[in-house]
Amino acid sequence: MTTILIRKGLNGFRYSACGEKGNFLFNSDRIGQITANWSRERKAGTVRFVRQLDLLPGDGSAAAGTDGTDIGKRMKEIRIKRGLTQREAARLIDVSPQTYADMEKGRTHVPGHKLMIFSIKTRESHEWLSTGKGGRFS
User: Fold this and answer.
1) pLDDT tens string 37-73
2) What are phi and psi of 22, to 5 degrees?
3) What contacts 52, CB < 8 A, 6 or more positions away?
């Protein structure tokens, strides 16, 4: 199960969605906007939300300090293992096929929230996907 932390917002927003380690994903003015992004996964029981409104998001994303090409290689490995085309994988995280291809090649930074969505929808460990450490499957 993946945990989404709801913390104090940044840059004038009331709330921030954060990954399991407090890494910033995105800002919102309503908690409902955060939970709506993962409504299917919440109903399926693969994601849960924890309120930590007394804390701020960590500095940067979970992918900070790791090479983008490594993240892209892991995304490609997962995509191929799941039998997905780049177009289908792009649809999973709501980006253009060209943007997804650039993410796999390490030419484009993978935003933290897109990486989180990719890990949830492919049922892979977010930690492994973002850092290459830990167990591979969630």
Assistant:
1) 888 888 998 999 998 888 888 743 333 334 556 889 9
2) 85, 5
3) 5, 6, 7, 18
